[in-house]
């Protein structure tokens, strides 16, 4: 039986304690230790029991405890101070970004998951954690950005293992009334509802808001009583359900997200899609511009593509959502009728090869066709992405495929321990958290006394060991283990032993079992009498990934070996809280992906910010690390066809490094028991890595490379009633129609044999342009050194100057190639369309080579 009426009960707070509500409902507290300490003081046991959820904590506080707090003048003074800090933070107008004031800039940042804090479990792994860190840096740097995501009623699964080590999943309902979220209301103080057409019906989407410092994050929720029961479950689980549910989720995120922003009066000057899940936002934005401003599809599409950015995070096609055309036909037909876009046109935009009826609808390909700007998340990942998506630009050389590279980072204040933060405050200065990408700041780590840095790190290792013992005891009690086993957890791990952490999603390419290739050798390495080593594992496999689950099971079986029970542990239900303890307490962070499948990886960056050293395969971000004094590398970046052989080679490399380099350095102590050589590496790692691999630097890269140029293009396209958009589309149509008339008549190098260093090679090029003007094109010299097979080793481009018009629509262009070094060189002539508003010169599919 269901009730006739429902009502919500909100926490009661006396007026004098009202600042606690503002502190609880702004997630600014998640990266400010003083705020966390204040909330913890209310009830430490309840703080832990609620997964560090201040909204639930306030709702469950005993009235007698509130009376005690009201009588505690020390608490009230601290509350006033912490609340004052939040107020000052929110009202401070200083811009920290190196790009200065942002003018007419509004970024809409779409992501399927956001990992901000453990009490808001709407994330699964790296993609969501990155998105959460990104919003925090946007808040710190005053970037005008809004986040858009989904509120999942059950979120991602909770992991537990049976006695055989097999992963099982459970789902916990997220009680939204006890989360730091607020329902968005319309002008009539009614819940804001956004209709999203799916199949033959409209799904009514509610909107929740949470505040991350200065940044609002809007979360869309279909669990609305007015919806059909099947639609209420669209946003039930993150990455749950079948393909149809996933498609519906992505329609709610993209279409519903833009409709939500529109109702809130927000029109973004840059649409940023964090992975392809939200690509339908482009479609809805095009539809909006057509309806509200009278633009045609091509005109509106030109505005959206010129101001949209797609960030790809996957290195393999299997990681991309691909939908059967029949699913799109069923879900989209009514929606498309209202937009004037044909189903066939939509399907073609999601195919690598057009007019291929057997190809599915690829969300990444669709995002690439809809957005003229794209970036990968590390330098190596850029190369991988260029290769993976090169079929979209068949005439473009691989190195010129228009995908940029911006390496990910982490929000350092969110991940370092309070102990390290205090150390940085004393020796780096109080502004280190506001300006973590300053190399001048991190050079000051040399001022930290070795003893103080090491003792601080040892305290964190002790707390990590204590945390693991408590978690292991809880795990064993849940499984019904014997009293002896449960009591034995008090002696598992040693707070003075070299501690290695391995925690991540258990996809098979991450090779969580690489360490166990040779069990006898591993046992010998871990159990050396004078140089023992212990390893802490954590991580989840996707519920449908049986191979990933088998990796976890194999690790559990190794752990049960009596010789290794005190050297290996697996912590269940990996989440932000577990990750925080690990990165703050381990000595070494182990990373073993199969190169080149790790797009970036950021867990090692978090560990490095806490003074841990990395032991990693040369993949993702670790390829960009300079110097050998910041950690250790497994192999030299080799890629193998035989994976079994690769596992053997690289596991032996790990054993050798642990036995002959890492353990000896860790246990080489002086009279004061300080490992001076190890501490020197810690300082080198902090100095070299923290200033580069953080989200402040990352966000400033996005602002300078993408956001500000997008805002400028938006202004030019939309001025004077979108006349710029109409003119731009007219230009594209004219150039496209006339491109077939182009012809490179002659290429005339003024070549001496041989050329000498310091000379310049003049090149004259005659081109027939037809009805296209010289201003419509860029005629380029594409040149560089050649290998023995006459292939370009590297390349540069020089735009030729238009010299004069000649008879019969011919035009002369001229330029020079500098001969700066000796060797074998070559060049070609390339013609591309050119326009001040053309973001990506390859987007029209027009290119002419000599």
In short:
By secondary structure, this protein is of the alpha/beta class.
Describe the structure.
This protein has 27 helices and 28 strands. The chain is globular and about 95 Å long. Strand 3 (158-161) and strand 4 (167-170) form a beta hairpin. It folds into 4 domains: 15-91, no CATH class; 107-159 and 168-320 and 369-405, Glycogen Phosphorylase B (Rossmann fold, 3-Layer(aba) Sandwich), CATH 3.40.50; 418-692, 3-Layer(aba) Sandwich (Rossmann fold), CATH 3.40.50; 742-849, Immunoglobulin-like (Sandwich), CATH 2.60.40. The model has no long low-confidence stretch (mean pLDDT 94). It is of the alpha/beta class and 850 residues long. 40% of the residues lie in helices and 17% in strands. The strands form 6 sheets. Strands 1, 2, 5, 6, 7, 8, 9, 10, 13 and 14 form a 10-stranded mixed β-sheet that branches. Strands 17-16-15-18-19-20 form a 6-stranded parallel β-sheet, with helices on both faces. The protein starts with 18 loop residues before the first helix and ends with a strand.
